[in-house]
Structure formats: C-alpha cells, structure tokens
Design brief:
155 residues; alpha+beta; two-stranded antiparallel ribbon; two-stranded parallel ribbon; 5 helices
C-alpha cells in the first residue's frame, strides 16, 4: 500500500514537472535540452517545506525560510541557460538558498560548490543530492563551513 502511494505521488510529481517545463519554460523560449531535461528530473518540492510543496510547480516564486524565495521556474531555467554549463564545468554558487539551482547545475556540470550562510539549509543538499545528481556542496555557517561530497544514487 505504501509503495503504491509513493508511486502515485512520484507519477504526479513527474507529471507536474513535465507540465512546468512544457508550459512555463520551453514555451517561453528556453531551448537548451540539457537544462530542460535537468528540470524534468529534479523534484522541486523536496527543496520546500511541506506546507509549500503544493506550490512547487506554480508559475511564480515560492517562500522558503529566512525571508528568501525559491525563484520562479522560468527564471531558474533562464539563469541556467545563460550560464551555459558544460559537462566538464565546475560551478560556484554563492547564496545557494534551498539548493534547487545547485542541484540542477550539478546535473549539468562536473561539480558544484554551493555556499550558503544560513545553517537551516545545510541538511537540504543531503536530501536533494541523494536522488539523482552528483556534486559537492559547502554550507558555510559562520566560521565553520560544512563540506560534503555526494554521488549518484542507485534510484
């Protein structure tokens, strides 16, 4: 029963991601196939608090803690397309927030170093990068940076 519920949730998330990419991103002129594929692969809702998860695929920014927002999907795609991240690139992101952009960039490049000063976000890369991306993250909180390395999951 639990597996069936997870499967339905996963299918719904996939459907919503595909719709987000088709309607909000590709139809507005984003053409980079790697960016579009990465956005189809990374579940946006895992970067949000549960109370905001339902808004993950809406066409707008979503609140995250510390007075920040997870940017509108189109804006995220536009930034990634403009960055033109090659598979061999190392990416530095300052002010990583929830880690969503870093997770997408990790799907595009060789390595990501994401720096965030709010300790709240330091556990998010573990959860996020554990699904389908490879990358490195640094969470700098005050004077004691926390560094982690992740690998591709078997899922």
């Amino acid at each position: 029963m639990r597996a069936a519920k997870e499967s339905r949730r996963s299918k719904r998330s996939r459907f919503l991601r595909d719709a987000m990419v088709d309607v909000q991103i590709a139809s507005r002129g984003i053409r980079n196939k790697r960016v579009l594929l990465s956005m189809r692969q990374i579940p946006r809702e895992i970067f949000l608090e549960r109370r905001f998860a339902a808004a993950a695929y809406e066409d707008g920014a979503v609140p995250i803690p510390k007075g920040q927002t997870l940017s509108q999907p189109y804006i995220v795609a536009k930034m990634l397309e403009a960055a033109a991240i090659a598979k061999s690139d190392r990416v530095l992101e300052i002010g990583a927030g929830s880690g969503y952009l870093a997770a997408l960039a990790a799907n595009l490049g060789r390595e990501v170093c994401a720096v965030e000063r709010h300790k709240h976000w330091c556990s998010v890369p573990d959860r996020a990068f554990g699904i389908s991306v490879v990358g490195t993250w640094i969470c700098a909180t005050g004077t004691a940076p926390r560094v982690g390395r992740t690998g591709a999951s078997s899922t």
